[in-house]
Specification:
The chain is mainly α. The protein has a domain of about 90 residues: Helix Hairpins, CATH 1.10.287. The protein is built from 4 helices and no strands. Helix 2 packs antiparallel against helix 3. The longest helix is centred in the middle third of the chain and has 31 residues. The model has no long low-confidence stretch (mean pLDDT about 85).
C-alpha cells in the first residue's frame, strides 16, 4: 500500500526539504533554492494526481473509452515558466541587495537596516529637541 504511493512520499519529502531550507538558512540564494525545490514538489504532485490508469491522449478513436485530462499538464507547463521567471527575479534582486548591502546574509542586512533606522530616529530626535530649545 505505501509502496504504491511513493510519488506522494517524494512530494512530501521534497516539500519539507524546500520548506526547511527557506526557514533555516539566512543566505538569500539558499532561500531561493529552497523555494525552487518546494515549487518542484508541487509540480510533481499535480502531475501525479493527473495520471489516469489506462488513460490515453484525448484523441477520439474507436475502441478507446478512457482518456487522460491534458489540463493539469498544461497548467504545470505554465507554472514552470512562472517559476523560472520568479527565480530569475529573485536572483536579480539578490544581486541588487549584494550591491547595496555588501552581503546576502539576512542577519547582516537586517542589522544594517536597524543601524540606518536608529540613525534616522536619533537624527529626528535631536532636531526636535533643537527646535524646542531655539525660541
Amino acid at each position: 500500500m505505501l509502496i504504491g504511493l511513493y510519488n506522494y512520499w517524494v512530494v512530501v519529502v521534497l516539500m519539507m526539504i524546500g520548506f526547511y531550507i527557506v526557514i533555516a538558512h539566512g543566505n538569500l540564494v539558499k532561500k531561493i533554492v529552497g523555494l525552487t525545490i518546494f515549487q518542484t514538489s508541487v509540480f510533481i504532485f499535480y502531475i501525479s494526481i493527473a495520471k489516469v490508469e489506462g488513460g490515453t491522449a484525448p484523441i477520439l478513436h474507436a475502441g478507446i473509452e478512457v482518456y487522460s485530462n491534458p489540463l493539469p499538464h498544461v497548467l504545470i507547463l505554465t507554472a514552470i515558466v512562472v517559476g523560472i521567471s520568479t527565480t530569475a527575479l529573485g536572483l536579480a534582486l539578490t544581486v541588487r541587495i549584494k550591491e547595496a548591502y555588501g552581503s546576502i546574509e539576512e542577519s547582516e542586512i537586517q542589522s544594517q537596516d536597524n543601524q540606518i533606522q536608529d540613525a534616522h530616529t536619533q537624527g529626528a530626535l535631536s532636531q526636535s529637541t533643537e527646535s524646542r530649545e531655539s525660541p
